[in-house]
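Subject: 32598_t:CDS:1 structure
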Amino acid sequence: MTESKEIKHEIREHFRQWTKHNPKDETVWEGWKVRYKPKDKIDNVWYEGVEDKISIEELKTIIEKALKRKVIGPSKVFNEMIKRLGNKLEKRKCVSDSKKEKIFRGFK
């Protein structure tokens, strides 16, 4: 297939088939429905405030209270390293795809 018309035809046919009506199979859903049902053991109160913004003051308080000589995690950053930043934490606005404000740790 090298002709322009053939290529265009194949592309149109591909997307026509790809976007064809495809109703969901209710018999398959019945097997999964139970897994997506809300769990009785999970209390909605546990998730209150998880999407609230974190202030610089709150971040500084957490850093101050962090214990020294703790085992590092995947970031390979010790609490002591973060504590040494001291007042060098700054808040910058960044436009991301989601247009949300982000907080960065950095040096002034």
